[in-house]
């Protein structure tokens, strides 16, 4: 990197008061087949990615029963079980799948209980340390879903609880039932719709976990990213990830990939020290309404 200064952002974040995580994690959605359906094309490479993630010091892996479905969780267990003591494997429930690229929200307690037990079995765990509601179901009373989360936590099947794609009002409602330790919403340098939620999480000492942290369909068209990347002898993808680490100390990153090479490239983003001028230039992306 052109800039040899060390990044000023904190390297770790503690969720739930007891789980200290390196902020650069790994999202295990892409180790499945096309359309997040079925097994990966290169199973051996998927296993290598998971093993390499741990070798790099990543101790936060995010998955879901719907990735495959079931495929991602099974591969994680095959590659990494018995797990290192400091490794947090977070999973999610709240979708059913009918085919490649097909997602159907289902947060009914009966469905969630079934898939939670399935996740425990596939991951070879007695307890999920971070279980996240994948989506709020418009066809199920939110209170019923929250009562389920409260119950399984009391049963000891789940240690900590997180939410995904929720607004501040929905987070506050959930806090009436459980301690919410994390929120996973779509967010990136060029997608800022959840700014209020990020700020609320920071104030409440909750982790904020951006999904789609690098907008791959559009990132190469963003001039400010390219400019900053050139200054740091980095890629626009790496700068987009670094920006998130600089943006707020409660952000945990889970970039996903099916290739060891890309995993290593993503991980290097944590070594990029963005200057105030860099951050100001990247702020133009928000002003452009991207």
TrEMBL record:
The keyword Oxidoreductase applies. Residues 23-285 form the NADP-dependent oxidoreductase domain. One of its GO terms (molecular function) is oxidoreductase activity. SUPFAM superfamilies: NAD(P)-linked oxidoreductase. GO terms for cellular component: cytoplasm. InterPro entries: AKR, Aldo-Keto_reductase, NAD(P)_OxRdtase_dom_sf, NADP_OxRdtase_dom. This is Oxidoreductase. It comes from Pontibacter actiniarum. The lineage of its organism: Bacteria, Pseudomonadati, Bacteroidota, Cytophagia, Cytophagales.
């Amino acid at each position: 990197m052109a800039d040899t200064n060390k990044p000023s952002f904190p390297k770790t974040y503690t969720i739930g008061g007891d789980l200290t995580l390196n902020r650069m994690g790994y999202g295990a959605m892409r180790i499945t087949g096309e359309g997040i359906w079925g097994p990966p094309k290169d199973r051996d490479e998927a296993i290598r990615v998971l093993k390499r993630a741990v070798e790099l010091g990543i101790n936060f892996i995010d998955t879901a029963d719907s990735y495959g479905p079931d495929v991602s969780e099974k591969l994680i267990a095959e590659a990494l079980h018995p797990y290192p003591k400091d490794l947090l494997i977070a999973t999610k429930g709240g979708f059913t799948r009918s085919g490649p690229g097909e997602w159907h929200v289902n947060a009914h307690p009966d469905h969630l209980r079934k898939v939670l037990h399935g996740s425990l079995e596939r991951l070879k765990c007695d307890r999920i340390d971070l279980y996240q509601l994948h989506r709020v179901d418009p066809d199920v009373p939110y209170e019923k879903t929250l009562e389920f989360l409260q119950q399984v936590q009391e049963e000891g099947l789940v240690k900590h609880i997180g939410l995904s794609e929720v607004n501040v009002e929905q987070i506050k409602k959930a806090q009436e039932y459980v301690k919410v330790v994390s929120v996973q919403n779509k967010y990136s340098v060029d997608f800022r719709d959840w700014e209020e939620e990020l700020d609320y999480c920071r104030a409440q000492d909750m982790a904020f976990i951006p999904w789609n942290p690098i907008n791959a369909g559009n990132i190469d068209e963003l001039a400010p990213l390219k400019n900053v990347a050139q200054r740091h002898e980095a890629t626009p993808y790496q700068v987009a990830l670094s920006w998130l680490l600089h943006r707020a100390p409660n952000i945990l990153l889970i970039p996903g990939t099916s290739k060891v090479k890309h995993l290593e490239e993503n991980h290097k983003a944590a070594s990029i020290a963005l200057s105030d001028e860099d951050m100001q230039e990247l702020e133009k992306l928000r002003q452009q309404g991207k």
